[in-house]
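Recall that a protein's primary structure is simply its ordered list of amino acids. Everything else, from secondary elements to tertiary packing, is in principle encoded there. The following example makes that idea concrete.
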Amino acid sequence: MAGRRAALKAIDWMAFAERVPPNQRAMFNGLKTRSDAIAARLRSLPEKPAPIDWSFYKGAVANVTMVEEFESKFAALSIPEPVDTETSKIDAQELEASKTAVAYIEGSKARISQYTQELEKFKNMIPFDQMTIDELNDVFPETKLDKEKYPYWPHKPITDL
């Protein structure tokens, strides 16, 4: 049956369910129920349809030429199966998405290590209420005021305030 050949990939419902947000769980359950019902109906159908008993119809129908005409037309009938043109595109998109995901994971690991180093810096520094201004400027250089370049208060350009 064409439906069985079309379903090349099985759906991993457990992995799919893990990615469904809680607010969309009802829609997911509806989709799974419909999919299971359709799959069950497809499995109940035979692989090939039952052959037509033309001799029965030739004996039961008064006009035998009409039955022979139907038989010849039915034998000449060929229904083309649709050509799968989308699977290669989907596979290419899946490959591209996996490359993007790997790049994102690598970038995330680099950011995690950077943030871990910053966290260690914050854990190991002197508490703010015990710091002097010089220690604050050493830990956070962006807070240092340039009194030579901007001798008047606020010791930085107005645009930076």
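The two ends are 73 Å apart (CA to CA). DSSP finds seven helices and no strands in the chain.
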